[in-house]
Amino acid sequence: MSEKSTRELIEEYLEEGPYAVVGASTDRNKYGNKVLRAYQQTGRDVYPINPKAEEVEGLKAYPDLASLPLVPRGISIITPPSVTEKVVLQAAELGVSYVWMQPGAESEKAIESGKRAGLGVIGDGSCALVVMGFHEDPSS
Questions:
Q1: How far is the C-alpha of 123 from the C-alpha of 140, rounded, in Å?
Q2: What angle do CA 33, 14, 19 make, to 5 degrees?
Q3: What is the pLDDT of residue 138?
Q4: Under a CB-based contact definition with an 8 Å cutoff, are residues 114 and 121 in contact?
Q5: Where are the domains of the chain?
Q6: CATH number of the domain at 6-125, please?
């Protein structure tokens, strides 16, 4: 079976949630916050993962994937590559189907371990903000 294109993986990823954003930030200027808001703007069920925050953008934050009340189908990762590598392994253990490493979060090791674990891996520099059409809300 041939490997799926990034476009095919992104389409599958966005078909159905729920989702989690690992590295969700309380700082609205950071990508970890903007990616979370992109899910919110497109009406998707999303859970922020941030071990230091009680909530992010009005949503209860969780310290890690294992703390979530359910297993997300897909996760966006906005963390340093060394953290991403651990997140991918945890995602595979929990039964997550897809991981989307945002630009700067990816590493060859994380990509390869995700693929070996059978995850749908997006880690080629594709940005969720662009794909989902994120826009800043000027009123906030």
A1: 31
A2: 50
A3: 66
A4: yes
A5: 6-125
A6: 3.40.50.720
